[in-house]
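I am still getting used to backbone structure tokens and would like to learn alongside you. Would you supply a protein for us yourself, any chain you care to pick? Start from the sequence, derive the backbone structure tokens from it, and show both lines together. Go ahead whenever you are ready, and we will take it from there.
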Amino acid sequence: MGEIAIVNIGLGNISSIQKVLQTIGYDAHLVGDASLLDKYRKIILPGVGHFDEGVRRLDANGFLGALSMAISQDAHILGICLGMQLLCHNSEEGKLPGLGLIDADVKKFRFAPESKLKVPQMGWNVVSTARENPLLPVNTEEQRFYFVHSYKVVPADSAITIGTANYGEEFCAAFQQGNVFGVQFHPEKSHRFGMELMRRFVEL
């Protein structure tokens, strides 16, 4: 399985993610030095906050190149919430380019004035498995995860979508492109479904 790294740029629920992994029997290291990333085979990129701030912090800490290198060396990457969005080309939230590791853009939720839906989406939502994949099982049991987000990932090719949710419209809640994964929800806040997803990722 190899060692597990949680990228620490000061954005995201890094201690919560580490505790969930410990609960299910795995040790993970908080990594703030990008030069150490090459020894890890499972890398989690969490994030909460503004897109451009996430890009700036990744760049300032040397992670932009280090993450690309890790992927080329067959490490598995899991982006969570803002971390998922940072893997894409760009976001309507900011002006800086993202990592560009996934062919997707990030768009804001926009609803008609008469809509009762609020932005951000905050709370539990059902995620439906879009196709067979290593993280989300294809079964009849309803899978619920916890979301907090105002923006959604829009892939250029919908074939990379592995999970969808509905909030006024169907959107990509999870993707996979090769060894790169992203989830818009917070598995560390999603109880047994989140723990199962994290277990599946670290056992890839």
